[in-house]
């Protein structure tokens, strides 16, 4: 099992992905159906394709990519027959399984999926740039914060926001949400370089994190 690939898959599922159960009618009987999928904007296609590749190569589901009228991209399929396996592997919309939280390489890949899904990178102090990785969530994710602190040995800040936030990929988050942030620093730059950056799929996010890593490594003379 390629646990790093599966960890990235899980990070995407828990941010931009869906895993929903609903009732459907078949031959005049009501059945429960569970669907998995991703629905994103054009800039996130590399993330969607990686998610689709894992569904094909790990779970045997080869999905067609659909372009919708609004220009967004969608993949989805029923996974009723995979639910027992998902349960054993910890594949769910919430929660971080031990095989992710206990191994830094797996967690780095998982965090890359989270960043590709709900993250962005901002720069503070342009004259002396400080690169800040920010993850947006509807609630404070204490488990995620504790694992970041464990493996990266850095501070993590959480800010509660109110209002409307419009993201570059067209997503709109309205109401209350939390922003979890940590800086690319001397303490975590090697972890980010070795464990997170190789798994980032969305180009503009990868480029911005690479810039931050490069700037910090220059200061460390590495």
Structure, briefly:
With 222 residues, this protein is α+β, with helices and mostly antiparallel strands. The chain is built from 8 helices and 8 strands. It has 2 domains: 87 residues, Endonuclease I-creI; 121 residues, Roll (Endonuclease I-creI), CATH 3.10.28.10.
Structural class: alpha+beta
CATH topology of the largest domain: Endonuclease I-creI
| SSE ordering | HEEHEEHHHEEHEEHH
CATH superfamily (homologous) name of the largest domain: Homing endonucleases
What count of domains describes the coordinates? 2
Rg, Å, rounded: 18 Å
Let me know the average pLDDT. Answer: 92
Strand proportion: 25-35%
Major sheet, described briefly? Answer: 4 strands, antiparallel
Tell me roughly what share of residues is in helical segments. Answer: 25-40%
Report the principal-axis shape. globular
Total number of helices: 8
Strand arrangement across the biggest beta sheet: 1-2-4-3
| Count of individual beta strands | 8
Low-confidence stretches: none
CA-to-CA gap between the ends?
33 Å
CATH architecture of the largest domain: Roll
CATH class of the largest domain: Alpha Beta
